[in-house]
Amino acid sequence: MTTTSSFRRPRLLPVPAVALWSGQRVRTPPLHIGPDGVSHRGSENRDVEGQLWPQVHGARTGRPEYAVMNPLLQRRAMEELLCQVGMGPATRTEHGVLWILPRPAGSPEDPEYDWDEGLTTTEPPSCLFHARVSAHQCPRLRTRGHVAVYVREAELVAVEGTYYPPLSRPVRPVRTALPLDSPDTRLMVADRLVRRLRAPTPVDITDRLLARGAFPCNRPARATSR
What we know:
The structure is a single chain. With 226 residues, the chain is an alpha+beta fold. The protein has a domain of 142 residues. It is built from five helices and 14 strands. The strands form five sheets. Strands 9, 10, 11, 12, 13 and 14 form a six-stranded antiparallel β-sheet that branches. The protein has a two-stranded antiparallel sheet with strand order 1-8. It has a two-stranded antiparallel ribbon with strand order 2-7.
């Protein structure tokens, strides 16, 4: 029986760029919680909207933690619609941007996707070349199977992170998601951006003809001769 070597030898596959490495640590410096929200004592990491994010220390050394995303690279990939593996532009066609998602089990706890309502996700998109890498390296996609779709609508709608309720004493942080326009985001240290996906078109990423024309999203641009 023949097998696809790229799926049998994960050590030969590129590590997704958004994966955190064992040599890195996500750190939230000591917080000050005041009437204007939460702030770090010392240097801060805020996005262009003023949202507070944690800090990532250390180098990409050791082993990749495939189940854990680097929050700062996840944010960049979601903001700019970059491939989560190569951090180059995600594949975009007339049908939209390419996403690789966990296959739902169809159970009450994991129902089929309601595309009319829209699917919220913290998974960044993918380029066609690296799509199979995403399907293999992500633990959820590998165990549950995947759904590959081009998505026409992918609106940024929320942030996930640690929320610090203002009236609780002592302060008891809560893991939650908040709409981007919620005033309560000032009381959150975010670590994920959330997009709502609608208008999907399925795609078969195992199609050899389709994959034949795919190139790495992060390959250097070729110099043009004059």
